[in-house]
Amino acid sequence: MTLFSRSLAAITAVMLIGGCASNEDALWTAVDAQEQTAQGSGATQNQGPPLLGTGNFEPGGVTPFVPTGTAVGERVQGMRSDLTGIQTSISSQNASLQNLRSDARASANIYHKPIGNITARLQVGTTPANPELVAQWNQAQEELGKVDNSIASMNSLANDVSATSSRATYLLNSIRATYRLSGAVDEDHRQLEVLEDEGNQTVVLIDRLLTELTEDVARASNYLVSERANLTAMSTAIKNGDYLGGSLATRAYGTPPPPPPGGGASQFGRSQPLVVIRFDQPNVNYEQALFNAVSQALERRPQAGFDLVAVAPGAGSQAQTALASNATQRNAEAVMRSLTNMGLPPERVSLSSTTNPQSSVNEVHVYVR
After folding, report:
1. Element (H or E) spanning 98, and its range?
2. Which of 194, 221, 240 is the last residue of a domain?
3. What is the rounded CA–CA span in Å between residue 351 and residue 333?
4. Is 45 helix (H, G, I), strand (E, B) or coil?
5. Are 99 and 168 in a shared domain?
6. Is residue 340 part of a domain?
7. How far is it, in rounded angstroms, from Cα 338 to Cα 336?
8. Could you tell me how far CA 252 lies from the centroid of its own chain?
9. What is the Cα–Cα distance from 108 to 223, expressed in whole angstroms?
10. In what side-by-side order are the strands of the sheet with 349-356?
11. Contact 340, 233 (CB under 8 A)
């Protein structure tokens, strides 16, 4: 017995019926109400600003040397100037990193303020497409775009630091090779030892800078992807004037199993659907209950996939059946767009169609695999 064949007793099975007289008729779920409330409150948690590094990578400087008058001494002085130039580059790149971190954190903090306001308004309910929330959403999107710009600048900075690292490594190898040159005095080798130590310290500092910068880019990029998904889900919630929850992308992990042979339509009449949406009126408000059902399914099985089946009435003339099939297909495509807007990755959803002579209205069935 599969996980969702037992869903009537312990998992989740949701029936959405448009145009019915009562709430009890409109929505039926086997999920315990107390459990559903607890999971719903967990879904509202948004992560804060990205956790960027705190390292400060300021070089220690280069020891001044007294010219010895030898050819090797002149070479040492030239390499000392090269190391000074490299450390100047590192100091500038470190300052750029600190500024980019500060900008990213500031933009993220500003971003979360309208997001918090929107969430609070949606949780108590508001008008569909409330212009105040739309304006706040646009502000949030603008600030998230600034975080994106900071990430692009960090990537560019990482390329610059990599180039500096190559220069430093080349210089360190040149310093070591200079020991083998003839015509040096003892002071030349003493200065070479000091220069080699400071070159080694510089290379280590650059490696630390590049490592932390790379980690910052990865963390900020993951944050950006997650918040973009949440922002997309929030646009759907604003459109409906009702809070849905965080993006479904944060609940989906692993690789979903492939659709069954014949697609999701092969499950019709054989498996219990997670959701049934009946389109018996022009505007069926199904997104909140659909989000809750899919969210809870993913919390129990993060690698799950979902099969949408457009079920058209099979009675009537051939022309009537064709019209119903086309309308049901469009309804299923709308449900699929809703799921992707909620953050569900498109590769986790399949779409197929069938007819049902016993059905009198267009329906969309959602199955879990």
Report:
1. helix 71-124
2. 240
3. 8
4. coil
5. yes
6. yes
7. 5
8. 11
9. 10
10. 27-29, 14-17, 275-279, 362-368, 306-313, 349-356
11. no
